[in-house]
Amino acid sequence: MRIVTFYSFKGGVGRTTAMLNVAYLLAQRGRKVVVADWDLHAPGLSLMERMQPLNGDGFGKGVLDYLLGLKESKNPKKAQKRVVIADIVHSTHLAREAQRRKGDDLEEPRMQGELFCIPAGNLAGGLKKFTDAVKNANLHNLTNFLSYIDPEDKRLVFRVFCEELRQTSIPWLMARSEGPADYLLVDCRTGITELGDLLLGEATDLNVVVYGQDPQNLEGLKIALSKFDRQPWELAANTLLIWSLEPAGQEVLKRKQRELKRAMVNELCRKDGLGVPEAFPTEYKIPYHPELPLTNVPIVHTYAQSDLSRVFADITQSIEEKCFWDDFLVSEYAKIDIVKNKMEGDHAAQRMREILADQSWRGYLLKHAYTHLDLAHELGLEWIRKPWSWEVFWDGNPFERVPLLKKFGTGDRKTLINRMVYATSFTVQHKKVLLEQLAKEPDHAKERKLAESFAEERTHDLTQSMLTAWWTSVEFLGAMLDWWCMVLSYQEQTDVNTRVIVEMLEGKGVPNWPDSEKPIFNLLLAVLLSQDLTKNGDAFKKWMREHDWPLQPTAYILAQNYLTRSDAPSRLIQDHAWFVAGFSALMHAKDLFGEQKCEWLAKAITACEYCPDDADTLTNLGVALADMGRIAPQEAKAEYFQKAIRAYEQSFIIRPDDAGTLTNLGNVLVDMGRIAPQEAKAEYFQKAIRVYEQSLIIRPDDAGTLTNLGNVLVDMGRIAPQEAKAEYFQKAMRACEQSLIIRTDDANTLTNFGGALFNMGRIAPQEAKAEY
After folding, report:
1. How far apart are CA 47 and CA 37, in angstroms?
2. Gyration radius of the chain over CA positions
3. Reduced to 3 states, what is the DSSP secondary structure of residue 6?
4. N or C: which end of the chain has fewer CB within 10 A?
5. Whole-model pTM above 0.85?
6. How far apart are CA 158 and CA 194, in angstroms?
7. DSSP three-state, residue 179
């Protein structure tokens, strides 16, 4: 359940209206939404006719009664009668109307999801009775509300409310609805109040701040955004702004307000330790609509195709993205899959549509999205957003030991050189060139030019989503270690202290660097070493090779360190750590021979077997088993190959039609065919051909798969009846020719092509043999 708080410094700016329109659109998308009126001093949501319960009795108990019940829960006589969430959450007339309504000639109802309401309380007895109840509840100390009841209870009352809602069985109206709410939208008290502070605090996933365009609202917005003790990146990540009810005309006044706004933005946006200012939150303007202040019915319900409805649709989409709704995660990971498979144009778009429509693929992509979210959360965003001191990596003063750094002035050079560490988009070669160019600039121009060289990248890093934070962290670690190795190459002395890098590779924490003490840091470093996925880290890996640190075995040990050191890793992260361990062992085994190869393949198989429901790990398991079969004694080969085939087939259940796994399956089917009895060979080869062709439908320009297809076609031609041989050999030649168009000088493909030509020449008519 995602929690979104709607707040305004002043009333009358359309906060409740905005919340209701967003709630409607979320429910229209199929989400299960609960709106709660926590504006206990000016409850507006509770007075809306269409938000009344379906039973026709009007709102009874609400948030106020829930809080009073908590207060009285220590009284044994009253505890059993305590008001719980199930007593105050109600279905609404608006949802029922939208669920039944059919518009635009659509057969489906306009609202696919649910919209329930939790009122502020019962207003039927009049305002005085309600306000007296608010006063008597002693709600002025909500922060310590529960400790008032029990001195040992330090929980925030709003957190307790949210947790109980998560666990409440809500009587949804639609048969397909089940489980807890997807969203809780909270209508918050205006002004500077403890209640507002409570609801805008750490318990929420996103704060939506609504404000008008007059000077008081702008000043109120500044107060609201500046009152929290926050890091420079948190404002844009956790806040969305709505500038509401913009009137037509009055351009002079509007221009004046925009100038005030710019001044406020400059004052509010903090700078990180490298001097890069944070981004201002995403903002949407809601134009004035004459019906907006006169109705309680959401505009998106009444005028679904209006410009105003489109603005609310954009706001809703932004909320879903910031709250990482599942559909958004799946879509983003589908795009990553397309990029990974190097597909472009119409074929890529079609492939993405197929992936999004396939429930197995969606489940696989969603799992990986949540894995990377878990990884980013465990690592912590401060990793890439809070600059470190240079002294973390050096015992002495590097500026006095590195000739090139001496060329920078003493005033700002520490910040200047530190900034270079954060430039993940530059390779180490680019950094060398840039540093040498900057060294020739006058001192007053150095900082400005370096800031310009990567300010845009740094701003992007400060505002990026948690969805990409893990891989950015891998990039950043590679960039930092590359920079460190680059500076080493400029050293005049040969006795450089490499303690820091050695301790990292040994899985130890680095002094004065708390992040390196975390178990997750071992896994982060293991990923950097094990996979060639970043543009950074090459100089560091070269340093390792020069100093006899084997890459993949070190990655394997670091991944194992994480699994050993972490107290309670999430299952998703644990699976990822086993994947990294298995992948590292598998990659290392490829460079080995004999007993050593067997030893590391066995390690890869053991690691991969720990997570039997991960598609990537199952594919790696298949590769390790197939490789083991290729070097096993003749009598053991078939058993390994059959296990590899089963591993690939299990991978397909989780992630169907993956081109890489299909190619690997084709390879092991060929291996199996080559050792099978004569009467079974054709069956394995035919299966391999079909699998390769299926892979090429997904990834039509994969040179390796085309080469393998040509290879098995030659194998099939050799055992085919005499009249069918030529067809197989000709198909093999065409496959090799296609592969050579993509990869013109590949020795393996040229060899296979030669084999196909040679076999064709053997069966060709006498007059054509010489040509082949």
Report:
1. 10
2. 32
3. strand
4. C
5. no
6. 12
7. coil
